[in-house]
Amino acid sequence: MRKKALSILAGLALAAGFLCAGLFVWASSLFSEPSAREVPSVAGELGATRVLAVFAHPDDELRVAGLLEAAKARDHAFTALVTATRGEKGSQVPKVARQRDLAQVRTAEVLKSGYALGIDEQEVWDFPDSGLAGVDFERLTARVEEAMERYKPDLIVTFWPASGESGHPDHMRIGLAAQAAAHRLSEMPAVDGYRGAKWIAYVVAPRRGIRAIGGEAGAFVAANEPAPDLAMKAKLSTRLRGWEIHASQEYSIPTTYRLSARLYYLLWGDEFYKVTELKERR
């Protein structure tokens, strides 16, 4: 009788294991994009040697951690990161500092995160967090254009302007400003031999996946994103380390999506990019 009971329990455990594995495979499939071709490095695939990432908030760079890390470590490209705000309006999860000091805390976090990713140069600007949509667009675009002239990238990395990958208005605004600046430079005569960026790589979310876990914002993102062209892996250890560095935001994924960061990234293993080619400057 005892052997029979143990046999039944073993069978149930095996069946449960198969069920869990099947559920994981199904859930993972939601975070795939059939249009995206898997590459080891987006910068390497394009032949980019200078990369400039333009984002809104401290921690946004974690959305493209794989691209930035591979560009530096694998392809030996120059990498730079612009963060347009200091993230002072963010909710602390967990609370690690006085709210009035959050801008300084998050500035330090993004600088440390960039260093861990091997980024060569960083700038953290002081545009208002959760207020980029209210900033004069010409002023914001001109600031991004100046950064492009300074760092001379051939690849710009930013948010898709119509969705911001998460639906955040700041994400959409900085994506639009980066797009406008890159296109404007491409139409101007070359300066000091710099002929402007050749490509913009817009980071986008897997549409079925973000719709499944993102609620109303996820549905908005899925409805306003293009099919990506390229996909690449990001190291799980790099992503988890990034959230440890961003201590004031470490639990933002569990808070937002009700998934542990580890499970979230096991499901969402790839970074996805829509790449557009820019007209070469004269």
Automatic annotation (TrEMBL):
Instruction: Tell me which Pfam families the record gives.
Output: PIG-L
- Molecular functions per Gene Ontology: hydrolase activity, acting on carbon-nitrogen (but not peptide) bonds, in linear amides
Write down the InterPro entries for this protein, in alphabetical order. GlcNAc_PI_deacetylase-related (IPR003737), LmbE-like_dom_sf (IPR024078)
Q: Give the matching PANTHER family.
A: N-ACETYLGLUCOSAMINYL-PHOSPHATIDYLINOSITOL DE-N-ACETYLASE, N-ACETYLGLUCOSAMINYL-PHOSPHATIDYLINOSITOL DE-N-ACETYLASE-RELATED
Protein name, as recorded: PIG-L family deacetylase
Q: What is the organism of origin for this protein?
A: Parvibaculum sedimenti
